[in-house]
Every structure is written in C-alpha cells, then in structure tokens.
Design brief:
There is one protein chain. The chain has 8 helices and no strands. The chain has one domain.
Length: 254
C-alpha cells in the first residue's frame, strides 16, 4: 500500500475529528448521552487518524511533536469519556480544554507530514514507555480539572475529591511502570538507565510530588492541601512534558 495514501487519510480524519471536538463546545451544554456520543465519535476518528499515521510509517506513530501533542490530547479525551457521568461543567470543560488546546496547537505549530522513527526509538521499551506516560499526564490533568470544579462548584464536593484521589493514585502507579520501561529504553538507546538530563530530572520531581500527594491522607491536617496540590501538579506536569522540550535542552526533544 502507498504510504502517502495513509498519511492523507490520517490528515483527513484529523480534520474531521477536530470538527467534532469543536462542536463539543456547544454539545457540552446538552444531555449526557448526546455529548458522550459526540465525544466518542471524535475519539474514534482521532484514533483512526493516529492508526493511519502508524500504517504509513510502519511503526508506532509517536515520532515527532505533532504526534506527541495529538496523542496526549487523545488521552485527555478518553479520560473525559470515562468520567462522562460527572455532571460538572467546570470539570468537563477544564479537562476538554486542555486536550483541545494541545490538539489545535499540534496542527498550527507543527508539521503534519510523516516522519520516521530514528534508531533510538526502535525498541519495544519506547512503545511501552511513551503511551503510558501520556495517560498518566491525562489522569493528573483530570485531577487538576476536578480541583477547579471543587473550588467553583457548590454542593457535594466529595465526588471531586474522589476524582483527584483516583488521578493521584493510578497516575502514580502507571507513571512508575512507565519509568521502569523508560529506564530500559534509556539503556538500549543511550547505554544507561539514568542520565542527568532535564526530562529525567523533571520526571523524578513529578514522581516525588505525586508520591507526596497520595500520602497526605495519612496526615489529617494536610488533607486540605490535596486540592491546591492538584493544580500545582498540573504546572509541574507542563514543565515535565512541554518545558523540557521547548525551554530546556534535553535528549528527549524530537
């Protein structure tokens, strides 16, 4: 099959999914069932777009910043689908806005042309490491969105605390697994499990930060800080994910 055919299909599906995601700004005001299926349609087309890119290069389609940003956006939308029953406009739009912004930025600032993986990416450990990291980021973004909702929503706030706790706990578990795979990838790619690199240092920082967050329950006086820490965590997340690629020189920039 002609690789160019699949890349063209990928771009077409990308724009179709963008159209559906954009309509969510209006659909989000409607009933739960309607907005769920609209977002689900966008996620399906988005996933097919990413899959088509993978077919075109015959490898896992996470080889450049465009694919990186759209993959993180997809992770945010999938998490939002999982929380479709949460009747909080602040939570939904906060989480959706992050995914949507990354999705749009990818198309505005980065090339959609196909790119092939360099030799250092040609390992199963890279394929396992990066997608899990994105879902960790999406879970922690969900915690930040729930923290905003807790501040601005009235009534029972326990549901938002549960979302915050879920993001803290399972995000940390998944990120720990991701770091193990990342260490194995580092050994294959650079000959070392750990390097004094900006990306790795910030990854350690964010791991310790969220490890601290999940231990706040053992200190009753500190539980009140979980909500603001969810917001601080999102800032650290952006530095770990975006800052180390654009503000600091890192071997992980591509």
């Amino acid at each position: 099959m002609d690789p160019q055919l699949f890349i063209k299909l990928s771009i077409s599906l990308y724009w179709c999914s963008l159209l559906i995601y954009t309509s969510y700004w209006v659909i989000g005001f409607l009933g739960r069932g309607t907005r769920f299926y609209v977002l689900l349609g966008g996620v399906i087309l988005h996933s097919l777009s990413i899959t088509s890119r993978g077919i075109s290069i015959e490898y896992f389609p996470l080889t450049n910043k465009f694919e990186s940003f759209t993959a993180f956006a997809l992770a945010c939308f999938i998490v939002l689908l999982c929380y479709s029953r949460v009747e909080s406009y602040v939570y939904r739009i906060s989480l959706f806005c992050v995914g949507y912004c990354f999705f749009v930025v990818a198309s505005v600032f980065f090339s959609m042309k196909q790119s092939y993986a360099p030799p250092l990416m040609l390992t199963i450990w890279y394929i396992l490491h990066v997608p899990i990291s994105f879902f960790c980021y999406a879970l922690w973004t969900s915690s930040a969105a729930a923290a905003l909702a807790r501040y601005f929503s009235e009534g029972d706030k326990r549901r938002f605390e549960n979302i915050i706790d879920f993001g803290f706990q399972y995000g940390l578990i998944a990120f720990s697994i991701s770091m193990i795979f990342g260490g194995l990838w580092g050994y294959v790619a650079w000959g070392s499990y750990f390097l004094w690199d900006a990306k790795l240092l910030w990854s350690v920082i964010i791991w310790f930060f969220y490890a601290t967050c999940i231990h706040l329950d053992y200190w009753p006086e500190a539980r009140k800080f979980k909500t603001p820490m969810a917001l601080v965590g999102f800032v650290i997340l952006l530095m770990t994910y975006v800052g180390t690629s654009f503000l600091i020189k890192s071997s992980h920039s591509f």
